[in-house]
Write a structure and sequence with these properties.
This protein is an alpha/beta fold. The chain contains 29 helices and 32 strands. The longest helix is centred in the last third of the chain and has 30 residues. Its main location: cytoplasm.
Length: 944
């Protein structure tokens, strides 16, 4: 283009830069949102609308954010923003979990580093340190969340350690006390001997652990009436927890399983088996037992079923050494032939199955192990020894008693504390429980699960199976930092005091003084005049932290007028089926009869690019702060919405690189739209869709289709699908087609031409729809683009105060869309032929070409009235009906477009120095070196 014509062309003009510079730009936008108080303006704009409440599952306030936090919070923000832009009042109130072991453990570490024992510190002083620690991390995490672009009530978040929250937790626990669901019982619970407390299922992780295994004889004292052949034999058990042997009180068999009585005839050297002895084992496990015990020859003397063992009594291997009690054989439905001997040794104080079987048969769980993991003083042979160090002593004692048949080791999945990483034990301890059966809590919870929408649907079965099989809810912890179990127990009867007035006095005190008052206040202030303090003992345990978070619906949703109960949505990682979703469900069903949510959404966990779990120890865990400071938060946000969050999600440098490239293309689309709209005014708009060219009307139809898709995806929380649709629209429909085709119209037509006005009218609609649809995803970029488009907007304005634009019914034209499907199919064959011609050096730019297109009559009819040369960005194009003239064999074809073939020829004429098309009339007009169209535009421009 010559210099004299360049100034006559409408080249795109915009201040929206190609290089995003997000790491520098985003803090400026955040500062603007703070300045205009965007959150308050969102609330004001939504006043009176239908509420949509996503209730925030509280993260723990004890460290910098990781990318799992980023995934979670960005997904929540995308949902709240999209619901707001669909016309709801979508308020997001962030919150934090503050009580419990993780923070207490951190403070204990400080004491240990100084050589001090936490138990020697005043409990209130210790709790104040825990509170200060949580406050410090809340402040840090708040700023890190805000930097991700998450909009919410950051000035007024909720915390479980706020005084009103602690008060409401007291009231909620009191409801279970008053309806009879809360009781004290001694049951085996998962216990950390390092942290000296019971742990909830959600605080447990499973890791490989190597255990000592033992095969032990239990001599038969009395054979059951159905199997006298057992006289003089020994039942053989197998266990991976030798330390539980002092707690043994029974052996269990499978009632329907086959068993054998086998005589040992020969043994290998070093075997602990004895020739002539008679052993009872599961028939299906006999070969394995013989191999483990070194039995080289044996005879099966009898075959029997488990039911025949009823009434059999054994003796403990250490009889005469303080274990002088009978050991009955009992039927257990949990006994299998997968591994071991077919018999399970039963220690009612050290296992859930053991406990319930023992209870069913009147066996009292013995107390054998204290909170430090040491055998109590009254335990014969092993008093004072640690359970994780006692295996050699157990083996030796079994050998001395002649009871050990074999031993070995096994590496298996074993419960560990997620905090200390130490292995756990099942330990019988007195704890406070909420019954799953009293008041039909289990039935109510299962019914609520059926009434809840689960996204993805498999979540329903997962949590349902957990509720079906879960034991009573252990809610007490032997720790210091948390809401105390505010109960008074009668010193003589052991019964808790059930008085609603006492509960309310405690709660009212906590509202103003906090839960520390339980440890400093005189019990009289709580008991009041009706109860004698001398008769009652205050409980010193605390409530487990999962009860705290399970109560958030009560002290957040029900108490804030800007929210509502129940929530529309709870959203967390899939591990929360056994955590927050679970305990919130139980708490709410136990006190209100239904779930505190209408829908629950779960996302997967983060993996590295190889599919391995992200962890700091592996060095594969990038922090969101690092990504944000280098690439920008919108890259993280785009990664979230472009990922299928219903499954585990991969994350890493290459994936971020791909996301950045996707963002770049998306940004360039917005930049082109903004450049094309430079100077656009309402006077230029073509208001009647019917007056628009077919191509523009097709674009409006696509916007109408996308509007349906966007709203459906937002309601389904299917942002992965939504983004794919928008990205395809930008790359395929806009960049690779519509905008590419209309560059000539935008650049070279007269400003007042109907073609250019129509194009800019449609681009304006595209921009408004696209930037608002993208606003929940790339919130910073959408704001930047909006402010670029409307530089004179009021200081208080924002794209995020908009709603998704309404789509006029007149835009929808399915018949037109079908026609354009045919036209675009034909065009793909043409562009493919042009690409091949360029590759073969036949031509340079596509405007040098005049393709000849051979097509069937229906396709030619679909192209009628359209300027196919413009559509294919060539200087000319000829359509030929293949019914009359078949295409040459060498013509270019595509397998998926039937009947279309293209031969590329060079256009005849000269190159227009303004629009660059090659046309026969170039040079024949008043303006030198231009075509007729450009000559007319130049004449009009000169006329002013």
């Amino acid at each position: 283009m010559t210099a004299e014509y360049k100034s006559t062309v409408f080249l795109p003009k915009t201040s929206f830069p190609m290089k995003a510079g997000l790491a520098e730009k985003e803090p400026e936008i955040l500062a603007r949102w703070e300045r205009i108080d965007l959150y308050a303006r969102l609330r004001e704009a939504a006043r009176g609308r239908e509420k949509f409440v996503l209730h925030d599952g509280p993260p723990y306030a004890n460290g910098h954010l990781h990318n799992g936090h980023a995934l979670n919070k960005i997904l929540k923000d995308v949902i709240t923003r999209s619901q707001q832009m669909m016309g709801k009042d979508s308020n997001y109130v962030p919150g934090w979990d503050c009580h419990g072991l993780p923070i207490e453990w951190k403070i204990e570490e400080r004491y240990r580093a100084k050589g001090r024992n936490k138990d020697e510190v005043d409990i209130v002083a210790f709790r104040r340190e825990c509170r200060a620690f949580a406050e410090e991390w809340i402040a840090i995490q708040r700023e890190e969340f805000k930097r991700l672009g998450v909009v919410g009530d950051w000035k007024n978040p909720y915390t479980t350690m706020a005084y009103p929250a602690e008060a409401q937790i007291v009231r909620e626990l009191g409801k279970f006390l008053m309806n009879g669901s809360l009781f004290k019982g001694a049951k085996p619970v998962l216990w950390s001997v390092v942290e000296k407390t019971a742990l909830a299922d959600a605080e447990v992780e499973y890791q490989d652990h190597t255990s000592t295994t033992i095969w032990v004889r239990f001599p038969v004292v009395t054979a059951g009436p159905a199997c006298p052949v057992l006289e003089g034999a020994a039942v053989v058990i197998w266990t991976t927890t030798p330390w539980t042997m002092p707690g043994n009180r029974a052996v269990a068999y499978g009632a329907g399983m086959p068993y054998v009585v086998v005589r040992v005839d020969a043994v290998a050297e070093g075997s602990l088996a004895r020739v002539g002895e008679r052993l009872v084992v599961g028939a299906d496990l006999l070969d394995d037992v013989r191999a483990q015990a070194g039995i080289t020859a044996s005879t099966v003397e009898a075959t029997l079923t488990g039911a025949d063992l009823a009434g059999t009594i054994c003796r403990h291997p250490w009889r005469g050494q303080g274990y002088d009690f009978d050991v009955p054989a009992l039927p257990g439905d949990f006994v299998t032939a997968d591994q071991g001997t077919g018999f399970v040794h039963i220690a009612p104080g050290h296992g859930e199955d053991d406990y319930f079987l023992g209870r069913a048969h009147g066996l009292t769980p013995p107390d054998t192990v204290d909170g430090d993991g040491l055998y109590m003083a009254h335990v014969p042979l092993f008093a004072g020894q640690h359970v994780f160090k006692v295996a050699p002593a157990i083996l030796e004692a079994m050998k001395e008693a002649g009871a050990l048949l074999a031993h070995g080791t096994l590496t298996h999945s074993y419960p560990h504390s997620w905090r200390s990483k130490a292995p756990l034990i099942f330990r019988n301890t007195p704890q406070w429980f909420i019954s799953m059966e009293t008041n039909d809590l289990r039935k109510k919870a299962l019914a609520a699960i059926e009434e809840t929408r689960w996204v993805p649907p498999r979540g329903r079965n997962r949590i349902g199976s957990m509720i079906e099989s879960r034991p009573d809810w252990c809610v007490s912890r032997q720790r210091a930092w948390g809401v105390p179990i505010t109960l008074f127990v009668h010193k003589e009867t052991g019964e808790p005091l059930r008085d609603p007035a006492v509960i309310e006095r405690i709660a009212a005190t906590f509202e103003t003084e906090g839960a520390d008052a339980w440890f400093t206040g005189d019990p009289r202030r709580f008991l009041g005049p009706d109860h004698d303090p001398a008769q009652y003992e205050p409980v010193r345990d605390i409530v487990e932290v999962w009860f705290d978070s399970g109560c958030t619906h009560a002290f957040v949703l029900e108490t804030r007028p800007d929210l509502k109960w129940p929530a529309d949505l709870y959203l967390e990682g899939s591990d929360q089926h056994r955590g927050w979703f679970h305990t919130s469900l139980l708490e709410s069903c136990g006190t209100r009869g239904r779930a505190p949510y209408d829908a629950v959404l779960t996302h997967g966990f983060l993996l590295d690019e190889k599919g391995d779990k992200l962890s700091k120890s592996k060095g594969n865990a990038e922090s969101p702060q690092k990504v944000v400071s280098s690439l920008g938060a919108d890259i993280l946000r785009l990664w979230v919405v472009s990922s299928d969050y219903t499954n585990d999600i991969r994350f890493g440098p290459e994936i971020l690189k791909q996301t950045t490239e996707t963002y770049r293309r998306l940004r360039n689309t917005l930049r082109f739209l903004l450049g094309a709209l430079d100077g656009f005014t309402e006077a230029e708009r073509v208001s009647d869709p019917a007056a628009l060219p077919d191509l523009e009307r097709w674009v409006l139809h696509r916007l109408a289709e996308l509007d349906d898709t966007v709203r459906a995806c937002c309601n389904a929380f299917s942002f992965h699908d939504m983004f794919q649709e928008l990205n395809t629209f930008c790359t395929s429909d806009l960049s690779a087609f519509y905008l590419d085709v209309r560059k000539d119209t935008l650049y070279c037509e007269h400003a007042d031409s109907i073609a250019r006005r129509a194009c800019r009218t449609v681009i304006d609609a595209v921009f408004e729809h696209l930037v608002t649809w993208l606003a929940p995803f790339v919130c910073f970029t959408a704001e930047e683009a909006w402010l670029t488009r409307y530089p004179d907007t009021p200081e208080t304005d924002s794209v995020h105060l908009r709603v998704f634009p309404a789509t006029p019914a007149a835009w929808r034209d399915p018949a037109l869309a079908e026609r354009w499907d045919l036209v675009r199919g034909l065009r793909r064959v043409v562009t493919g032929a042009l690409e091949r011609a360029r590759a073969d050096k036949v031509l340079g730019a596509s405007v040098q070409a005049h393709p000849v297109v051979y097509a069937p009559a229906p396709l030619i009819e679909a192209c009628a009235g359209l300027d196919m040369a413009d559509l294919c960005i060539t200087s000319g194009l000829t359509l030929i009906d293949t019914a009359a003239t078949p295409a040459p064999a060498e013509a270019h074809r595509l397998d998926d477009v039937d009947g279309v073939a293209v031969v590329v020829a060079l256009a005849e004429g000269a190159k227009c120095q303004r629009c660059w098309k090659v046309l026969p009339d170039v040079g024949q007009h008043a303006h030198e070196g231009v075509c007729g169209r450009c000559d007319a535009v130049l004449t009009a421009q000169e006329a002013g």
